[in-house]
TrEMBL record:
Keywords from the UniProt entry: Metal-binding, Methyltransferase, Transferase, Zinc
GO molecular function, one term: zinc ion binding
Entry superkingdom: Bacteria
Organism of origin: Roseimicrobium gellanilyticum
Necessary cofactors: Zn(2+)
Record protein name field: 5-methyltetrahydropteroyltriglutamate--homocysteine methyltransferase
Length: 342
């Protein structure tokens, strides 16, 4: 299903324009039609920047989400959102985001909103450009919910969320979405101490409705809230179990980790396409096309061109837009240099 070797892509999120950041803090000043117009305009900005960069695959930049993961809680019944951060002072980091209480049966009768995002993207993007929509996997989605008597632990919460995510994927396929990324960074963050086979089973059951119908991707990183990772940054503990993921493309962050474990893409490429992260979204160093080309050549030592995809390490929502634009443009230019060599 991949249309070219050395494909260029993104994970999902893209920086909000400054006016969207401001407007989202004053939504009470806008009418419902104003907000719809704002959503369209923001998606157009993200689409335009990605097309200008020359990417082979684009998203809507997740411009209508406040967070790649937590925005979905607004669609799920049975959750009481936490009123305040547990730590309000000091350096911004993951521990400033606490747990939300589960106060009823978890359900999403209106769906999770990704279908509407895809339909907007499809309406606004040029015809013929490959489009991708991202949804969080159920294990990652469970991370900010506190267990209770009905849902005893994180895995019980995950099992309750799994059919909700699975149904959203099924609806995306029905809507005509040809590429779906199921983001599961929590699996890579905690795979060193959890049962990796259990993670594989959860993932495979979640994506079953799309298998053979859409290109299934997954994103495995180590966190990027406010530019900080949260997990032990090693891919080795995930394998060989993760070779059995029912995915067409698996993304791993490499640039921020200075290409440690790059050889892990060799066995991966024998099972599915590998998306190598070559843009460090945590750094404001703008990688040059030559640096990107060197990373592509290094990747080619372990995987064939027709199995490789290149993308940023993670979503770009935590990176300033000026840097994101330059980084994407240079990424595409660097990959194109190696394409011409081939």
């Amino acid at each position: 299903m991949k249309d070219k070797p050395l494909r260029t892509s993104v994970i999902g999120s893209y920086p909000f324009p400054g006016w969207l950041e401001f407007s989202s803090q004053h939504l009470d000043k806008f009418g419902s039609e104003d907000i719809k117009e704002m959503q369209d305009d923001a998606a157009r900005v993200a689409i335009g920047d990605q097309l200008d960069a020359g990417l082979d695959v684009i998203t809507d930049g997740e411009q209508t989400r406040f967070d790649f993961n937590l925005s979905f809680y607004g669609f799920i019944e049975g959750i009481a959102l936490e009123p305040a951060s547990p730590r309000r002072f000091g350096p911004p980091a993951h521990d400033q985001r606490g747990k939300h209480a589960i106060v009823g049966t978890l359900a999403a009768p209106r769906g999770l909103g990704a279908v509407e995002e895809f339909e907007r993207l499809q309406r606004l993007a040029p015809k013929g450009v490959p489009l991708k929509v991202s949804v969080p996997g159920p294990y990652t989605l469970s991370g900010r919910l506190a267990p209770n008597e009905e849902y005893k632990d994180r895995f019980a919460i995950t099992q309750a969320l799994l059919p909700l995510v699975r149904k959203e994927i099924e609806d995306l396929v029905r809507a005509g979405c040809k590429e779906i990324c199921v983001d599961e960074p929590s699996m890579s963050c905690y795979g060193y101490k959890e049962d990796t086979r259990r993670f594989v089973s959860i993932f495979n059951h979640t994506v079953e409705p799309a298998r053979g119908k859409s290109r299934i991707c997954t994103h495995l990183c180590f966190g990027n809230f406010k530019g900080h990772p949260v997990g032990w940054r090693k891919y080795a503990p995930l394998f060989p179990a993760f070779l059995d993921l029912h995915a067409d493309e698996v993304h791993v962050e490499m640039a921020n980790r200075e290409y440690a474990e790059l050889d892990v893409i060799k066995p991966m490429a024998e099972k599915y396409d590998v998306a190598v992260g070559v843009i460090d979204v945590k750094s404001y160093h703008v990688e040059t096309p030559e640096q990107i080309a060197d990373a592509v050549r290094a990747s080619l030592k372990f995987a064939p061109a027709d199995r490789l995809v290149f993308a940023p390490d993670c979503g770009l929502s935590q990176t300033a837009r000026w840097a994101a634009k330059k980084k994407l443009a240079n990424m595409v230019a660097g990959v194109e240099m190696v394409r011409k060599e081939l």
